[in-house]
Amino acid sequence: MFAGELQRQKALFAACDGVALLAAFAAALMLHDPSGAMEVRLRHTNPVLLGLNVMAVVCLWVLVFRACDLYRMRNGGLQESAGIVRGCSYAALLTVLVGFLTHVDVSRLTVALGYLLSVPAITVGRMATRKCIRRFYANPKNAIPLVLVGCNRFARYLCDQILDEMTPYEVVGFLDDHCEMRQYRGCPVFGSADRLREIAALYPSLEAAIVLPDAPREQHERILELCEQQRVRWWLMPWVSKWPSGGLRVEMFGVVPLISPRGSNIEGLNFALKRVFDVAAGALLLIAAAPGLALGALAIRILDGRPILFRQTRIGMRGRPFGMLKLRTMRPAADDSPHRDYVRRWIRQGDAAAQGDACGDRVFKLANDQRVTPLGRWLRRFSIDELPQLINVIRGEMSLIGPRPALPYELELYEPWHLRRLQAAPGITGLWQVSGRNHLSFDEMVRLDVQYLQDWSFAGDLRILARTLPALLRGGGV
To answer: Which residues are CB-neighbours of 438 under 8 A, at least 6 positions away?
Structure first.
């Protein structure tokens, strides 16, 4: 309905941020180069190469802003201001790092000045852009009156979205002859849908959003016919929209629309990108972690004896079992019935089980588990026991980031919607580990897993990795 308009707003804010960055760095060069030496040097640089370098820096900063969700925040406020400071800080550090790695002569003082100037420049630029967009939408020639046919919870939710976002739509009211409310957020309830004729006469460019998912087909056809007679552009919420908990995806094949529940976004080229990153980053991390892995294995061999590795059957992508590798932290032949009981209570009772047995901010871990050796507790604290899972990542059985690997005996307790978390390879870390929530219930964890799969992006994976490292350094595990 207005998704295309929101995408254009994002592009406009990205262009505004790019212009603000250019202005900030131009001012930084003027302040850092009052004698003009840098200006002379730039003039003698190949214009094409100079332009490519400038565009690369601007694109880098805009990509960092996107990773910081700045293009989802367009209404200003403290959250956007904090996001601008955070995004500019990350982008400035990356600029210096990339310049160092590529041996490009980047003046750190210029970057520092550009960073200091970029925060106010981007803030002012966004304020100006926001003001221009709102003035444009406020123009009677550009504003679009919208009537909502229905006053149920779906219609009110749609009203909230329109009123809370910058859109060209102005909600003139609701049409619903079964609604007991007289108004909602200042928008009146007119009554029967037959009054559409009167409203269309008052607003020549009127559009109608028909939000009656429970209405029979005959009622929908009557309202659509009325819209066509009054030359009112209409939008229809299908009855199936109220069923899937994770939303819908609509795809057009020619002129045929097909609706399906939102599934994993890790498909096709996205899957290939994630897999390439897993192999490359997994191999580098395995090489970097080799000394710690060797010391951990040696300590187990000396203090606890054999075996050093622990292989456990887990459920991977699309329900395929695999052997997950870990450094052994428990006594050999330990009974797994306590853990089975905890899993059963955690899935069925939710928070009650988690709060009773979870350790700190970890979920799915038994507190004071007597099966764990003293050395094993230390290895678990710093997640050294998880390092062999990098081999699973390289083999394609796991990913660096993804849902928690499921155990075979917990699948018997799953509800049908829980199985949606098996649509991608399980991960060593994931969104639920860095969510900042204590004592997650099982349903909350699954919702975070499903949210991660539906909203997957490469930038999102990088954010999760960046939030995982501090937890490891603090001894918080993954």
So the answer is: 360, 361
